[in-house]
Every structure is written in structure tokens, then in C-alpha cells.
């Protein structure tokens, strides 16, 4: 009994046909193992080890064990540098493209890989690792293990090797889609990425949506750029973004663009507007979390001597760079045009409109008013107990004076005696 070459053909045909009954890689693996068991294969554990293109992880492991669902784990880059992975059959087949078999039930079986002794202690009697070669030449791996006292027969080993190539094709198509989703999530955000994958890719294809607009900007970035070493500046900027982006995402927002040291994000509101108050509260919670995180970052940078404590210290040491990290943030509520904008050969998935311009203009007031977070009248009305008016301002690009509100917990009064005197904001419109 067991899987013979002729019995492997239906499984190979299913894989070659695209394994259409399985949507994801874990589904492919689960159904593959079910089919192998039905053919009489004494399978106990099967694993897929796939390298991936992702900013945070080097690869993924899909592991099936008899009687359990497929388990999916992601491995960070550092995991691929560990001694355990370097001295593993999977690494051997990825590097060499040659299958590795160890009959662990034999007394004289060499335990030349770190994990073989652990498998042997778990009762594994036979182990096979095969390369999975993708169309671009990139190599990945699959492993098969049994606890049958007789191990795998020669016919079963031949059958498993014969399905490696069609398994590679079925897994590759799903890996490419998974990679595309990960890259789109990374560069345009999850909601934007989903729209692009769904076919919203034509230039000028935009939707009019209601949203909370988040516009933030670091203060004194030009001074920091002049005084800090390039890599130090990049590391600081990344940490600064880490103070905002996780909170934005955790509270349902979407980061659309990094504008140098600025962040443009949106919190989408349902078409019927029923969740408007809830969305505004979530955005405000994210804003407060970000404010506190930036303050902690600033203190760390000062304590390590990377930044000076105050602007007055700038002349004391050129190595210290600038005063602590500070930023301004504006929250506004309005309608934006959300979609593909750009040239024929280079599109950007973003949002534009007067509402975005107003958020940008209000943000420029944060330094003048000595505030971190400011809000428009439209946003403040959704959180009335949180805000107090700080004045009406003549903002560039807007004919009417704009009422601006500050948080109750930011008590410092405005520095400007006449907030109407200056036209705030000179950056280009995004309408």
C-alpha cells in the first residue's frame, strides 16, 4: 500500500490545474495532506517554508500535523541568521536545490542537522525535505515526515518527489498574491491596497468620501536635517513615524502619504454618517497617544545626547543637533476625493480637496499657538467636551475666517495677540 507513482498523478493533476478548491496557501497544504492520507500515505507532519518579499519578515512557515489545522508562522530576518536555521535540512535544500532524506528509524541514521534529534524524540521514523523551485529561480522548501514504523517506502518517496514541481506552481501563484498584498499594504495602506487589487487602478478614478483628515508635521525638521548625520536623521524620522502610525492604524485610520516629515492620514466615515462621532473619538484617541509617544521619544533622544533639551542649547554642541522632538497635528472632518491621482505612468493613491488643505493650514498654527493638537470647528463639534476655541484665523486659500479649537488639556494660551493678523500656511494647495 501507500502512495505509488501512478497514485500521485491525480494529486499532481489537481496541483497543475491550480488547486482551485483551495483559496490560500494554508488551504492548499491542508487539502494536499488530506489527499495524501486518502492515498494511504502514512503522513504525520508536512511543512512549507517560503521566503517572501516583506519589510519585516524574511519568510513564512506553513505546518500541518495530523488531526490539526495548518499553522502559519512568520519569521523575522534575524531568524534566518540563527544557527538552528543555518544547520537545517530546509536551508540545505534552499541553498543546494537537492532533496534531503533521513531514515530516523534506522540506528545508524546520521543526525547531522540540529532538528533531527528532536523529530526522532517525537517518534518520526522517516523525513524528506524537497526543494520548491519558483519560475524566477527562487528556491523554497517542503518537508514530509512520518511516524510509521516502516518509514516511507521507495515508491512513496518517488511519489512525493514527483509532486514537488506542481506543488511549487500552486504555491507560487498564491505567494505572489500574498506578496502583492503585503507590498500594497506597506506602500499605500490596507484599504487603498484592497481597492487597487480590486481593480481601481485607472487614473482619475476617485470616490467622494467623508473622513477625518489627520495632518501632522515635525517642527524644526530643517534644523535637524542640517545638524544631524544622515543616518541618525533617518533613524530619528523612522522612530518619529513609529510614534504615530501604529496608533493611527490601531484606531481604524489609514496612512496615505509621508510628506517629508509630515503624515497625511484619513479615518473613513460610513456613507450614512452614523459612525461619525465614534470615528472622531477614535482619531482623537490616536492623536493623544501619538502626542505622548512623541514626548517620550523626545526625552529619550535628549537623555542620550542625540538632541539638545531646548533651542537655546543649539550653540553649545554641534553634535547635539537640535532641541527635542516636537510636532503639530491638525484634525478636520470633511469630504475628500479619494483615489488615483498622478501622471499616466506614476499614480498615487491619496486624497485631495479643500478639506485636506484646511487641515494642512490649521497644522501650521500649532507652533504659533504653542499647541500640539488643533481641530477645526467641524471636528470639535463631534467632541464638544474635549475642545475650547482658540480663535478665528485668516488662512491662505480660504475667504472666510476659520474657527480653530484646542484641547482642554493643552492649557498654554496662544502666543499671538491677534490671531487674525497673519495668513497661516504657505504650502501648495492639495485641492
The unreliable regions are 310-322, 414-428
Number of domains: 2
Q: Classify the fold: give the CATH topology of the largest domain.
A: Alpha-Beta Plaits
Largest sheet: 8 strands, mixed
Average pLDDT rating: 86
Instruction: Label the CATH architecture of the largest domain.
Output: 2-Layer Sandwich
**SS summary, helix count:** 15
User: SSE order, as H and E?
Assistant: HHEEEHHEHEEHHHEHHHEEHEEHHEHEE
Strand-pairing-aware structural class: alpha+beta
Look at the structure and give the CATH class of the largest domain: Alpha Beta
CATH level-4 homologous superfamily of the largest domain: Nucleotide cyclase, GGDEF domain
State the separation between the terminal residues, measured CA to CA: 71 Å
Helix content: 25-40%
Tell me the β content.
15-25%
Shape: elongated
| DSSP summary, beta strand count | 14
CA-atom Rg in angstroms: 29 Å
Overview in brief:
The protein is an alpha+beta fold. Helices cover 37% and strands 25% of the residues.
Give a written overview of the molecule:
This protein has 2 domains: about 5-185, 2-Layer Sandwich (Beta-Lactamase); about 200-405, Alpha-Beta Plaits (2-Layer Sandwich). Helix 1 packs parallel to helix 6 (about 155-160). The longest helix is centred in the last third of the chain and has 28 residues, at about 275-305. The N and C termini lie far apart (about 70 Å). With about 425 residues, the chain is an alpha+beta fold. A hairpin with a 2-residue loop joins strand 8 (about 255-260) and strand 9. The strands form 2 sheets. Strands 7, 8, 9, 10, 11, 12, 13 and 14 form an 8-stranded mixed β-sheet that branches. The protein has a 6-stranded antiparallel β-sheet with strand order 3-2-1-6-5-4, sandwiched between helices. It is about 35% helix and about 25% strand.
Amino acid at each position: 500500500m501507500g502512495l505509488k507513482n501512478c497514485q500521485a498523478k491525480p494529486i499532481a493533476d489537481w496541483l497543475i490545474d491550480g488547486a482551485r478548491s483551495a483559496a490560500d496557501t494554508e488551504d492548499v497544504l491542508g487539502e494536499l495532506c488530506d489527499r495524501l492520507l486518502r492515498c494511504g500515505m502514512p503522513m504525520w507532519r508536512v511543512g512549507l517554508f517560503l521566503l517572501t518579499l516583506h519589510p519585516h519578515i524574511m519568510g513564512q512557515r506553513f505546518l500541518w500535523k495530523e488531526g490539526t489545522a495548518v499553522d502559519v508562522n512568520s519569521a523575522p530576518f534575524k531568524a534566518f541568521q540563527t544557527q538552528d536555521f543555518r544547520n537545517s535540512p530546509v536551508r540545505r535544500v534552499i541553498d543546494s536545490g537537492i532533496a534531503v532524506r533521513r531514515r530516523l528509524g534506522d540506528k545508524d541514521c546520521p543526525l547531522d542537522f540540529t532538528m533531527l534529534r528532536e523529530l526522532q524524540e517525537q517518534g518520526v521514523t522517516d523525513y524528506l525535505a524537497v526543494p520548491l523551485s519558483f519560475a524566477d529561480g527562487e528556491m523554497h522548501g517542503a518537508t514530509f515526515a512520518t511516524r510509521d514504523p516502516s518509514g516511507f517506502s521507495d515508491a512513496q518517496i518517488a511519489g512525493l518527489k514527483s509532486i514537488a514541481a506542481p506543488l511549487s506552481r500552486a504555491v507560487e501563484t498564491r505567494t505572489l498574491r500574498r506578496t502583492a498584498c503585503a507590498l500594497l499594504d506597506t506602500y499605500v495602506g490596507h484599504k487603498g491596497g484592497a481597492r487597487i487589487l480590486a481593480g481601481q487602478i485607472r487614473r482619475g478614478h476617485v470616490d467622494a468620501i467623508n473622513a477625518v483628515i489627520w495632518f501632522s508635521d515635525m517642527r524644526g525638521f530643517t534644523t535637524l536635517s542640517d545638524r544631524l548625520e544622515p543616518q541618525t536623521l533617518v533613524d530619528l524620522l523612522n522612530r518619529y513615524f513609529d510614534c504615530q502610525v501604529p496608533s493611527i492604524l490601531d484606531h481604524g485610520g489609514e496612512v496615505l502619504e509621508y510628506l517629508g516629515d509630515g503624515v497625511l492620514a484619513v479615518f473613513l466615515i460610513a456613507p450614512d454618517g452614523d459612525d461619525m462621532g465614534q470615528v472622531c473619538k477614535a482619531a482623537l484617541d490616536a492623536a493623544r497617544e501619538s502626542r505622548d509617544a512623541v514626548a517620550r521619544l523626545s526625552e529619550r533622544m535628549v537623555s542620550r545626547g542625540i538632541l539638545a533639551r531646548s533651542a537655546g542649547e543649539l550653540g553649545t554642541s554641534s553634535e547635539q543637533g537640535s532641541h527635542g522632538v516636537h510636532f503639530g497635528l491638525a484634525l478636520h472632518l470633511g469630504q475628500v476625493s479619494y483615489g488615483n491621482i498622478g501622471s499616466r505612468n506614476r499614480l498615487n493613491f491619496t486624497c485631495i480637496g479643500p478639506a485636506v488643505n484646511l487641515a494642512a493650514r490649521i497644522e501650521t498654527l500649532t507652533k504659533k499657538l504653542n499647541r500640539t493638537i488643533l481641530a477645526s470647528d467641524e471636528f470639535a463639534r463631534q467632541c464638544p467636551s474635549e475642545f475650547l476655541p482658540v480663535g478665528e484665523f485668516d488662512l491662505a486659500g480660504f475667504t472666510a475666517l476659520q474657527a480653530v479649537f484646542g484641547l482642554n488639556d493643552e492649557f498654554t494660551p496662544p502666543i499671538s495677540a491677534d490671531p487674525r493678523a497673519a495668513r497661516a500656511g504657505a504650502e501648495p494647495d492639495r485641492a
